[in-house]
Amino acid sequence: MNQMMFALSLGLGGMWLAANMARGETQCDTRDRVVAFLAERYGETRRSVGLAGEGAVMELFAADDTGTWTITVTLTDGQMCLVASGAAYEAVTEDLPAKGTPA
Fold first, then answer.
1. Cβ(68)–Cβ(44) under 8 Å?
2. Which residues pair with 62 in a beta bridge?
3. Residue 4: pLDDT band by 50, 70, 90 thresholds?
4. pTM for the whole thing?
5. What ranges do the domains of the chain cover?
6. How far apart are CA 27 and CA 78, in angstroms?
């Protein structure tokens, strides 16, 4: 269930990013500058990474002290864009349900 919700939120984030890019309203910069901004302003560090469509890389940054989190997408041109952010981050690792068991 958590993986499905994460995939759904990433998909919605991708649509938001595409819509804002079309209007020229995205919050993007070089990866180095965005990573430094997240570390300095929010104390966030990278917690997970994955491949998105068209060769883009999705990363989740979070801070244990404050619970803030940010999802970014780095595009093939090297620009990193902020996709979503929030509060109350908690790292969770769950076992898959047994086959045939409702999630």
1. yes
2. 45, 69
3. very low
4. 0.71
5. 2-86
6. 14
Q: What angle do CA 39, 43, 49 make, to 5 degrees?
A: 65
Closest Cα partner for 57 from 66, 67, 49?
Answer: 49
What are the tokens at 65? 């002290």
How far apart, in whole angstroms, are the C-alpha atoms of residue 99 and residue 84?
33
In the chain, the amino acid numbered 4 is M
**pLDDT digit string (tens) for 50-82?**
999 889 999 999 999 999 999 999 999 999 999
How many Å apart are CA 99 and CA 73, to the nearest integer? 33
Q: What are phi and psi of 28, to 5 degrees?
A: -125, 155
Cβ–Cβ under 8 Å, residues 73 and 56: yes
Cβ atoms of 45 and 63 within 8 Å: the answer is yes
